[in-house]
Design a protein that fits this description.
Length: 107
């Protein structure tokens, strides 16, 4: 009986721990090549396409979570190099990425 309770509890607690790990992995696998580890876009593509430095406080305040989510889901209307990810990622992954983008803000 006790054992079963422990199993149930650990199943409940596990997903949040996974999510945090998961979003970093998703960023590394799908976003880093252009936006860089730190979101500053100090990459070849970043330079070529003048991708914004997401660590800038000014940029962070200029975009809403909804706008970030939209660009990730549907791609950018200004630059087609920023592709739509709604077919490649789940809605939950996209939500986590919005949160991740917020963590890139320079402290
Ligand atoms: C092939 C290169 C490339 C990859 C990979 C890429 N992006 Fe982008 N991204 C761009 C470019 C180029 C822009 C600039 C688009 C613009 O000016 O509107 C951009 C813009 C953005 C913006 C909006 C910035 C703004 O100015 O408002 C967000 C948010 C973003 N990307 C998130 C992501 C996330 C999250 C991923 C991974 C799932 C990702 N990008 C993967 C190239 C890329």
């Amino acid at each position: 009986m006790m054992k079963r309770l422990v199993v149930v509890l650990s199943l409940c607690l596990a997903p949040s721990a996974f999510a945090a790990e998961d979003v970093t992995e998703v960023w590394k696998a799908k976003c880093k090549s252009c936006h860089g580890d730190d979101g500053k876009a100090k990459t070849k593509m970043g330079q070529k396409e003048s991708i914004v430095d997401m660590s800038q406080a000014a940029w962070q305040t200029s975009v809403s979570d909804a706008e970030i989510r939209q660009v990730i889901s549907d791609g950018s209307t200004r630059n087609t190099k920023m592709k739509a990810y709604k077919e490649k990622l789940t809605a939950a992954q996209i939500d986590s990425l919005v949160g991740y983008v917020r963590t890139l803000k320079a402290k």
